[in-house]
């Protein structure tokens, strides 16, 4: 799928990897609908990116809020929403039993799954219903520059997991379960939506330079970097966003999870 002129919804787009994705999509000529719970950050980003980016406040734990946001997106960009990037998420480091042998708070476990797993699926199912109504893009045409046009697809969904889905660390039972759920739904969703010419992919990022990561003690940062093969440094948001747009543009990427981690493996803490 070609990016210029098409509209993409990005959840969690007001900060971190979502923000980097919004910036790259706008720079490549797309229209972006930024969904985020943080109204102040969302409005600040849209002011920076200009008229090609619209902010709509959305709580991904609420089906009502998601439905309203997607309906508003459809009104702003009728017959043009071709993709979704689910960057909204939340972390958590809570031991199953803490040092005083107190059990993990079940409400927090549910909260982490509600945002990362259920929220991702809820936004995906509702957005896919909008995309499925659109006419397919052009056929796959092989030319001198490679495969052109949209391959007959209607749209693409890119979900975000984590290395914790595969190698969860101490205190990541809830987070690993939540992101593992995102990985697990990738192929079934791709099969479900393939009949509607909609692709589904997942990205599992490693350690990226985010405010949370850079706020950690220097010793912690060095320990994380030692587990990276090369380059032994934190990933940049632009590198994540580049992978997102590569997935959008390559019609033959479907139904799988791509790790972007510089060869990192999460070790026991």
UniProtKB/TrEMBL annotation:
Q: Which PANTHER family match?
A: 17-BETA-HYDROXYSTEROID DEHYDROGENASE 14-RELATED (PTHR43658:SF8), SHORT-CHAIN DEHYDROGENASE/REDUCTASE (PTHR43658)
Q: Which SUPFAM superfamilies match?
A: NAD(P)-binding Rossmann-fold domains
Sequence similarity: Belongs to the short-chain dehydrogenases/reductases (SDR) family.
Designated name of the protein: 3-hydroxyacyl-CoA dehydrogenase
> Record's InterPro entries?
NAD(P)-bd_dom_sf, Sc_DH/Rdtase_CS, SDR_fam
Entry's Pfam families? adh_short
Q: Which domain of life is it from?
A: Eukaryota
For this UniProt record, give its keywords in alphabetical order, as a comma-separated list: Oxidoreductase
Could you give a GO molecular-function term held by this entry? oxidoreductase activity
């Amino acid at each position: 799928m070609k990016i210029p002129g098409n509209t993409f919804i990005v959840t969690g787009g007001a900060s971190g990897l979502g923000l980097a994705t919004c910036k790259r999509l706008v720079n490549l000529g797309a229209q972006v609908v930024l969904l985020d719970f943080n109204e102040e950050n969302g409005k600040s980003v849209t002011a920076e990116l200009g008229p090609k980016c619209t902010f709509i406040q959305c709580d991904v734990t609420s089906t009502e809020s998601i439905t309203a946001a997607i309906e508003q997106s459809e009104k702003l960009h009728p017959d043009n929403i071709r993709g979704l990037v689910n960057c909204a998420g939340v972390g958590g480091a809570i031991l199953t039993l803490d040092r005083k042998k107190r059990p993990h708070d079940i409400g927090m476990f549910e909260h982490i799954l509600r945002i990362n797993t259920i929220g991702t699926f809820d936004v995906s199912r509702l957005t896919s219903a909008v995309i499925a109504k659109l006419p397919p893009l052009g056929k796959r045409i092989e030319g001198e520059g490679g495969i052109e046009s949209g391959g007959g697809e209607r749209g693409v969904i890119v979900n975000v997991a984590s290395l914790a889905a595969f190698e969860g660390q101490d205190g990541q039972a809830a987070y690993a379960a939540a992101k593992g759920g995102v990985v697990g739904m990738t192929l079934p969703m791709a099969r479900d939506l393939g009949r509607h010419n909609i692709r589904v992919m997942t990205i599992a990022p490693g350690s990226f330079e985010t405010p949370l990561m850079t706020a950690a003690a220097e010793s912690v940062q060095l320990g994380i970097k030692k587990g990276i093969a090369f380059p032994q440094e934190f990933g940049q948001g632009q590198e994540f966003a580049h992978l997102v747009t590569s997935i959008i543009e390559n019609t033959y990427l479907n139904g799988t999870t791509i790790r972007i981690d510089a060869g990192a493996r999460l070790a026991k803490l």
